[in-house]
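Our collaborator T.R. sent over the components below with a one-line note: 'Predict the complex.' Nothing else. No constraints on interfaces, no templates requested, no preferences about which chain binds where. So this is a plain run: every listed entity goes in together, and whatever single assembly comes back becomes the starting point for the next discussion.
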Amino acid sequence: MLELIKRIRSDGRNLGNGILKVDGFINHQVDPALMDACGRELALRFANVGATKVLTAEISGIAPALTTAQHLGLPVVYARKSKPITMPDTVFLTTAPSHTKGRMVDLIVSPEYLAGGEKILIIDDFLASGATIWGLVRLAQAAGATIVGIGTLIEKVFEGGRELLKPIGVPIESLAVIKSMEDDQIVFDE
Amino acid sequence: MLELIKRIRSDGRNLGNGILKVDGFINHQVDPALMDACGRELALRFANVGATKVLTAEISGIAPALTTAQHLGLPVVYARKSKPITMPDTVFLTTAPSHTKGRMVDLIVSPEYLAGGEKILIIDDFLASGATIWGLVRLAQAAGATIVGIGTLIEKVFEGGRELLKPIGVPIESLAVIKSMEDDQIVFDE
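Returned assembly:
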């Protein structure tokens, strides 16, 4: 998606070690118009997979998942990283390594909002190692739900997430695909 | 705002001790159409305050802040609760007690995205004790920015947040105002 690629080219920063800083428009400050355009595009790409719900992980998955869900006319559930007091005693919980935090984090979904028979479209900001998304897949499977698609804003192909997720056998779509980040460059697969 | 009040009446739950569960449409599962309507209404109420940026706190402030910012055509910044590796070494940080977590949490904003001279509209899901919003006010003031308005989805008047924030001297708007939650009731101020 050219609009997103252009924005990463102008405002993204390669911090080294595969870390892409997009804090100015996705991860800390958010550009709502860009996020809406990304949601519209993801909704278009997954228009025919029969999703009944969008699933994401807090925190930075919320914005793209919300706009995608809005364009698909679906509810969105975000997995929590800690269990709020409003959640029931018994929940679906899995742990996944966090790339940006350098530690394991919990991903928690209440069975109230993830049920058997649901067709789940997973949306997140990044597809890197795929560990967070794989955690969301496990949560959905624990609930007896079916994954029907995986969509992200930015994919770093050199971190292998797509290979990890391929066996699930669902469409995987990313709006900006980065082939390499060596030598301070950001090289897109266009 | 009648649409939100109706939804709280049908799907909200009074868990006692002033805890209102809205996990089915705001805090865990999100209804994007409702959130868009709330954002449109908040944007309307703050159309004339001259805001240049919307500020909120992760996690559950993100959805209403994003839709409000979208309707105002402004960027939105969400204060982080932990400092990601993409953030500069020196940041604005304050601590505030979290009602739902029962402990102090950090609120962190990068000086890259909160600058002197900005006119800040604060949006959050709840106005309860006002402690989180007061923390956001301190962050904005530390940056030399000016607060021009405070908007929330749900206000629990009996927790006193409005009195705490009143001295700031800006408009405070809430879309659903709850007067009392005694005896399993949810009594709105309509």
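Summary for T.R.: Chain B has a mean pLDDT of 96.
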